């Protein structure tokens, strides 16, 4: 590959990884906020309602910060399809563009609309309508992930298409939209990502709550409820995450031989098979990417064991009185993010040298951009994304350390009946 193509790959890997960090926390937190608001809306106990209302607003505030900054990373990332990978749109745009267009026009815009109404409707809308808005926000967020994974699954295993033309002028046309939804590389991968997001959001909520207990917070009930919700959600989602991760192994071995490789005779046989099928090339996943794959699995099992142990410690309140497990919960906050990025890089790097597996090589999809221009855009975009990530971390850390709003500011304002005026 040319230097320009390598730089384009590095740039897209960097921007995608940054964006994926935002996505994982957004999907996890919006679900937990919706659950909290549901409990608030259904509760008949006034004291409990006050606590749940404050939880909704506090964790919702953190969610909105992450969502707002994540939008910028997503928009810039999609621009790169046109700037650096024009061949992708030229050859497979008719197929690849369909799920991306649905994601942008339906999921993204609807999600932003519902979230805006939820933010400004607090205390102004009927409580059931307001509750419906946060669930609609969550559902459209998952719809966004759904269509992104449909597009990515096509890149992993192209289905539902026909090739029009010959040679360098050949393009791909969509013939079976249903095949995109039944792609073997789609279902398990989507559920794996969703479970990972719930683990990420749950560990984040539990870790922030544990931090406040280590600081000897006076908001004991608030953070007890938050810690329980986050910890139990993460503990339930963790085995689901592992299960759907392992469920993909047989599909990967069948459709992408050589992707999960430990070297030796098996790797040599896979390489020979793929050379015979596609021509000369290096089709075996690099050792460092396989290392990330192993790291993801190790983190997943260790995190699951730790979550189960801490759930057991919730009984009789042991967890809230032991500083060591509380410190571990704080330390665990970045682990789901690291595991998620490791898995994502393995999924994408392991597909090389293909941008669309078996159909479009990465070097053939790259735009004709000079090395100097690629260096400039790489530096600019990396700096921009790093600034957004730092801003996100600083704002979230500031709000998280400050804690929830005072009790009197939590509940939606009640309508005031004017006093009768004597004539």
Describe this structure in words.
The chain crosses the membrane at residues 20-42, 63-83, 95-120, 132-155, 189-214, 226-247, 299-319, 326-346, 374-396. The protein is mainly α and 423 residues long. The chain has a domain at 186-247 and 257-349. It has helices spanning 3-42, 46-84, 86-120, 127-156, 177-181, 187-214, 220-246, 249-255, 264-278, 287-314, 318-321, 323-331, 335-349, 362-365, 371-402; strands at residues 161-164, 171-174, 354-356, 360-361. The strands form 2 sheets. It has a two-stranded antiparallel ribbon. It has a two-stranded antiparallel ribbon with strand order 3-4. Strand 1 and strand 2 form a beta hairpin. The protein is globular, with a radius of gyration of 24 Å. Residues 414-423 have low confidence and may be disordered.
In terms of topology, how is this protein built?
Layout: H1 3-42, H2 46-84, H3 86-120, H4 127-156, E1 161-164, E2 171-174, H5 177-181, H6 187-214, H7 220-246, H8 249-255, H9 264-278, H10 287-314, H11 318-321, H12 323-331, H13 335-349, E3 354-356, E4 360-361, H14 362-365, H15 371-402
Antiparallel strand pairs: 1-2, 3-4
Helix pairs in contact: 1-2, 1-4, 1-6, 1-13, 1-15, 2-3, 2-15, 3-4, 6-7, 6-12, 6-13, 7-10, 10-13
